[in-house]
Amino acid sequence: CSDSDLGPISLDWFEELSSEAPP
Amino acid sequence: TEAEQVTPVLLDGLREENLQFISKLKDSSSSCAVDVSSVWWEAAGCRELCVVTACESSVSLWKPQALDCWEKVYTWQLGEIPVIQIIPLPDTCNLVCIALGNLEIEEIRLLLYSSENDSFKQSLVKSGNIKAVLGLKDGRLVSSSTTMQEQQVEIVSVSETGRCKDRQTLMPPEETVLAFAEVEGVSDALVGTTAVNSVAIWNLKTGQLLKKMHIGYSYPASICHRAYSDSGLLFVVLSHPHAKESESCGNPAFRVVAFNPKTARSTGVMFSSLPPGHTGRYLEGEVKAACAAAVLSSGCIAVWDLLLGCCTALLPPGSDSRWAVVRWSAAGSGLLAGQEDGSVCVYRY
Q1: What are phi and psi of B33, to 5 degrees?
Q2: Residue B31 confidence (pLDDT)
Q3: Closest CB to B267 among A6, A22, A23
Q4: What is the pLDDT of residue B2?
Q5: Strand pairing class (B95-101; B105-114)
Q6: B63 C-beta neighbours (distance < 10 Å), count
Q7: Does A13 touch chain B (CB under 8 A)?
Q8: Cβ proximity of B198 and B212 under 8 Å
Q9: What percent of chain B has pLDDT over 90?
Q10: What is the mean pLDDT of residues B255-284?
Q11: B86 exposed, middle or buried (CB, 10 Å; 0-12, 13-18, 19+)?
């Protein structure tokens, strides 16, 4: 799979989603 | 004769046997194997990997003996509610966790040995309309349960004395959670698959529901078995008990799907289908690392290499009893296979 199929990939996805999600 | 009945079938001209029969244990008082599991058990300073077998009304602990024999150490008798599942608790010792219920789980109980009063005992962890439960590392259990109004997703920490030390709730999604998996590589992440075929991600530390990602309509009622994070992607191993056969994929039992948690987009990575020419479908199974095993509706057990997407061994049903349940051992490469007559065969994979 490529970036274009799945969109931009972040190695820190867990930390980023945790900071964006409601507490 | 017994060994002949349980000799693995070799597929597609494979020369080496991938499953080696080791031993068999038979509970003469048991009618049907509901579930089987392995548990670390320490007694008199000796820690051993024991086998736990469950039938509807009792759960037995079996200790390994010389010459591949097994000795039944103790049998816990349960009440009126039937045992339907053994819940493995990783990294624990002298603790067996079970689910009891009829169509759905009604109780979760711990079975243990108490050195305080030198007796085997049991304790209630949770009761209710429980839809899914999973043993997590550090002696924790996560479960989803429903009331008339809402769903509760809860983590309970249990001690080796059978006490519930701590309870924490996670934010529930709108739809019912049907299965959970810890995320390898991200210590505080948990995923679950839901009744509308989504994968939910939680932060175990904060209880936040981080994301919901739809799996797609081709494979309804997918169940997650394993999840790991690699290179910014979340890989989830799913089983598809209700998938329809297709020309491109055959009859899929397991699928590895890569999700981008940032965008919720996904792509299938690998299919593991039923062996060519094999009729029937996936009934139930378990995944350990890159290996998957399942009982098929034909009464066979199939084993797959999930990275190669191919079936590596097939155990036909015995002449007098079909396979009912298959589980991976907690240590090494052991496979525990339970038959409908209550006997359990131990294989090395």
Answers
A1: -75, 110
A2: 67
A3: A6
A4: 45
A5: antiparallel
A6: 17
A7: yes
A8: yes
A9: 69
A10: 90
A11: buried
